[in-house]
Each structure stands twice: as C-alpha cells, then as structure tokens.
Amino acid sequence: MPTTSVFAPAKINLTLHVTGQRGDGYHLLDSLVAFAPVGDTLTIAPGPGAGRGPTLTVSGPEAAGVPVDGSNLVCKAAVLAERSDLALHLHKSLPAASGIGGGSSDAAAVLRGLDATPDLQAVMRLGADVAMCLTPHPQRVQGIGEQLTSAQLPPLPALLVNPRVQVATPAVFKALPGKTNAPMPSQIPGFGGVTDCIDWLAMQRNDLQAPAIALAPEIGAVLAALITLPACRLARMSGSGATCFALFETEDQMQHAQTHLRKAHSDWWIAAGVMGDQSLKARPVNHA
Ligand SMILES: C[C@@](CO)(OP(=O)(O)O)[C@H](O)COP(=O)(O)OP(=O)(O)OC[C@H]1O[C@@H](n2ccc(N)nc2=O)[C@H](O)[C@@H]1O
Ligand SMILES: Nc1ncnc2c1ncn2[C@@H]1O[C@H](COP(=O)(O)OP(=O)(O)O)[C@@H](O)[C@H]1O
C-alpha cells in the first residue's frame, strides 16, 4: 500500500447546548460545529505485519503527553478497521484534551485514510466526537454526538486560544448544575453573510462554559482577553474547554488581532484560520 497522509482538523463547537442526560450518564447535546484549517497530520504506512498491532510514533509541537501505545485513539481506530499491519505517525499540532477534538479527529483521519466504514455504534465507542469528525464540514450535532445534519455557514475568520490548562471532559459535565437546557431553534437560519451568522451565534450558548471556568479560571481570563481584541465580534469556549475561539468579520481583522494577542500572551497556544468546511483538505494524499 502507498504511504498516505490525512489532515485531522480541529473541531470547534460554535454552540453547545446540553439538553438532557441519558440513563447511562451520557449527555444529550445540540451543537453547531465547524472545522478549522488548523490540525494534526496522520501518516499511514505499511507496518511490521498482521497480528503485531499497529505501531505508532508521535512528533510535533503538541506531542508531549500524547499516548504512544494502544490507548491512542489512532491505534483503536486502526484496530476497529481490522488493520493491525500499519505503521502510523501522528504530527500533533493541536493541544490534547482541550475541547477541539484532537484525538477524535485523529481517529477519524485513520478511518478516512483507510476508506473504512465501520458501523456508527462502533465509531461512537471510540468517542462521542469521532462521527462528526468523519465529515469535517459545518454540521448540527444532536443525540450524544451521533445525529448529524449538514449546515450552511459562511466562512468564519477565527482565533483559537488555549491557556495551557487541561480540563477533564467528565469533570466539566459533572459540574454542570442543570442538565436540561433549551436546544437551539429547530431551524438554523440561512445566513446572508458573516455578520448575521455571528449575530445569531451570539444568541446561542455553550452550557459547559460556566462550569469549565469554575474548574479552571484561566478560561475566564482568555475570554476576557479575546472580547477586548480589536474587531472581535464573539468570544466563546469550544467543547468542554479549555480552548476558546474569537470570531471576526474579515481575515485582516483576524490577523491583526492575532498579532496583538501574541504580543500580550506569548505563553498561550494561539492559532488563526477561517473556519468552515475542511473536507477537501482532510482527504488522504498518497505518496508513491
Ligand atoms: C464535549 C464534547 C462536545 O463536542 O467535546 P470535547 O470537549 O471532548 O472536545 C464531546 O461531546 C465529548 O466527546 P468525546 O471527548 O469524544 O467523548 P467520549 O470520549 O465519548 O466521552 C468522554 C466523557 O465525556 C462525557 N460525555 C461525552 C459526550 C456526551 N455526549 N456526554 C457525556 O457525558 C462522559 O462523561 C464520557 O465518559
Ligand atoms: N491521538 C490523540 N491525540 C490526543 N489525545 C489522545 C489521542 N488519543 C488518545 N488521547 C487521549 O484522549 C484524551 C482527550 O484528548 P482530545 O481528543 O485531544 O481532547 P478533547 O476530547 O477534549 O477534544 C487525552 O487526555 C489523551 O490522553
């Protein structure tokens, strides 16, 4: 088999409404997600052979602490695809455990790169975020993450910012006092452009934001810094945190704000890009 590379983009929860809780403890969600042109890169090559399990190496600026054994979601995805004969390499650019689905997007990249189509329940057992990462375009996500409906969004210039604290997803859900909150409106409107899209997003919520700030006050500091950036229209946390995003109407404004923020907070992880559909970029690229 040829060596294949797949881009694993960051998943951003533009909204995250927690609308209920199932008997098994998992929470029901109503979330609008988009994908950023910022992400990890997975390389799939022939490995030592069947029966020995996939091998994995990890490099990149965010590699520290990422598991290199069978617990890594990329190994679990290869096993699910019944491909234990692979050598996997992961270049980590996304901070782990940070609310932008890095591990889930990596697992989805394995399945995309192998053209594997396991059933939805098996995919969900890898992680609730993996199914949405198989189709990295804007979508509404319901259920616990398995009900996916494509959405039309204008390109959204954004900064992604992580204060270098990790918050555990189960702890954040546990700290949410009310599990039954209003969903988004039944219809997501057709947006004429970036301005009315951001206006609408501003009326929605991330219900996990307040409990995450209670556990990690640094998240509040990030949001305060983002909302005061020049031309910032909306600042919100993604997923269960701690990564937050800031939205702008133009790429120039986004770049200007990025320069500003990097000067003030050299210790934060900061990335910039236009969010939207990363499906094309996330396609496998074969090397001879
Ligand atoms: C909160 C979200 C929003 O997109 O994103 P992240 O913060 O992880 O990026 C996801 O629902 C996270 O998905 P993911 O991280 O794949 O979840 P899993 O590994 O399946 O579950 C980790 C833990 O999160 C909680 N969990 C997850 C999903 C869900 N719908 N309800 C939950 O209660 C459970 O406590 C579960 O044990
Ligand atoms: N490929 C991977 N990249 C990052 N973390 C991984 C990976 N595989 C397994 N993990 C584990 O999964 C946990 C959640 O990571 P991640 O998916 O990046 O976070 P989140 O669900 O908050 O977006 C981490 O604590 C890490 O130990």
TrEMBL record:
Pathway: Isoprenoid biosynthesis; isopentenyl diphosphate biosynthesis via DXP pathway; isopentenyl diphosphate from 1-deoxy-D-xylulose 5-phosphate: step 3/6
Residues bound to ATP: 95-105
Catalytic-site annotation from UniProt: 11, 129
Catalytic reaction equation(s): 4-CDP-2-C-methyl-D-erythritol + ATP = 4-CDP-2-C-methyl-D-erythritol 2-phosphate + ADP + H(+)
Residue ranges annotated for the GHMP kinase C-terminal domain, each copy included: 203-264
Domain GHMP kinase N-terminal: 72-117
GO molecular function: 4-(cytidine 5'-diphospho)-2-C-methyl-D-erythritol kinase activity; ATP binding
Any one Gene Ontology BP term: isopentenyl diphosphate biosynthetic process, methylerythritol 4-phosphate pathway
Swiss-Prot/TrEMBL keywords: ATP-binding, Isoprene biosynthesis, Kinase, Nucleotide-binding, Transferase
The protein's Enzyme Commission number: 2.7.1.148
Domain of life the protein comes from: Bacteria
InterPro entries with a match to the protein in the record: GHMP_kinase_C_dom, GHMP_kinase_C_sf, GHMP_kinase_N_dom, IspE, Ribosomal_Su5_D2-typ_SF, Ribsml_uS5_D2-typ_fold_subgr
Function in brief: Catalyzes the phosphorylation of the position 2 hydroxy group of 4-diphosphocytidyl-2C-methyl-D-erythritol.
Family indicated by similarity: Belongs to the GHMP kinase family. IspE subfamily.
Listed name of the protein: 4-diphosphocytidyl-2-C-methyl-D-erythritol kinase
Species whose genome carries this gene: Thioclava indica
Lineage of source species: Bacteria, Pseudomonadati, Pseudomonadota, Alphaproteobacteria, Rhodobacterales
Encoding gene per record: ispE
